[in-house]
Amino acid sequence: MIDFQTDSVEMPLLDEGRLFRWLTAVAAGYDRMLGNICYRFCSDDVILSANRQFLQHDYYTDVITFDYTRGRKVGGDILISLDTVASNAASLGVAYERELLRVIVHGLLHLCGEHDKLPGEREQMECAEDRALRLYDEMGEK
Prior knowledge:
It is a single chain. By secondary structure, the chain is α/β, with parallel strands linked by helices. It has one domain: Metalloproteases ("zincins"), catalytic domain (Collagenase (Catalytic Domain), 3-Layer(aba) Sandwich), CATH 3.40.390.30. The chain has helices at 16-28, 44-55, 82-92, 96-111, 121-140; strands spanning 2-7, 33-42, 63-67, 73-81. The protein has a four-stranded mixed sheet with strand order 1-2-4-3, sandwiched between helices. A hairpin with a 5-residue loop joins β3 and β4 (73-81).
């Protein structure tokens, strides 16, 4: 089950059915299945507070993933700052909607075992995001 919630922001426009099918397919590519996942869209202030409280990081970020995966069933809470998504989209010169999809799948990829902290991991994560975004595009064409 995937749940979408907001905290201090308006809910972005999402095709929840397509997102569910897409995220299910991405997880299956890692031999995983979806468990309970909650996407919580928030402001920079909310994500900064969470970053300080839970990770002892004093900076803004676009996504924080809390992993509750058990075996092959992925689950967790994924906190996404829509403010940072918007500023990243502008600085990268990409559409806000596309950057939001990238961050949504980024959280799921963490639950599937991808990492982005050590040398080489960031590039591997970006490749996984790109593959997932191509899959999203293909699913829309059917």
